[in-house]
Design goal:
Helix content: over 70%
CATH topology: Helix Hairpins
Mean pLDDT: 90
Radius of gyration: 35 Å
Structural class: mainly alpha
CATH superfamily: Methyl-accepting chemotaxis protein
Shape: rod-shaped
Number of strands: 0
CATH class: Mainly Alpha
Largest sheet: none
């Protein structure tokens, strides 16, 4: 076998090794995408739970506001005797309003987080699809390299006869 033939076979072997390395790296990337996707699913689940807890806080704030309103009405009916209770009912109403406003802010933040996580989820799916396409191309290249190596060996053997 002459030098050119050896070099051709060596280059084909190098290409095969590189393509195999690409497939391994792509496999690692795929595993990491799955890991990120799993973490994202946990975050989405926790976000839903926070959303439910925030709804509960908002419901409590609404009920507290109604109680404060009723207390204000009753303290007004009681006249001078209900004056001290009026201050308490005003404080209750302020707390209820603050709780309601804060829970609304949490809802807005959760909505933004949810939208961002949805975009991440879509990007991960697209990335996974691209990696699958790359794996297909790598497999095709690997098969073509094997075919080229066999054809080259056959050709070299014919030339050397």
């Amino acid at each position: 076998m002459d030098e050119t033939s050896k070099e051709i076979l060596e280059k084909l072997t190098n290409i095969r090794t590189d393509v195999d390395s690409i497939k391994n790296v792509t496999g690692n990337i795929t595993d990491k995408i799955h890991d990120v996707s799993d973490v994202l699913a946990v975050i989405i689940d926790k976000t839903k739970k926070i959303n439910e807890a925030t709804k509960t806080i908002q419901a409590i704030a609404n009920k507290t506001n109604m109680l404060a309103l009723n207390a204000t009405i009753e303290s007004a009916r009681a006249g001078e005797a209900g004056r001290g209770f009026s201050v308490v009912s005003q404080q209750m109403q302020q707390l209820a309003n603050t709780s309601k406003d804060s829970s609304q802010q949490v809802f807005e933040l959760l909505k933004e987080l949810s939208n961002g996580m949805g975009r991440i989820e879509e990007e991960l799916k697209d990335l996974f699809d691209d990696i699958n396409t790359q794996n297909t191309y790598s497999s095709n290249m690997f098969e073509d390299i094997n075919t080229m190596e066999e054809l080259s060996k056959d050709l070299i053997a014919r030339i050397n006869e």
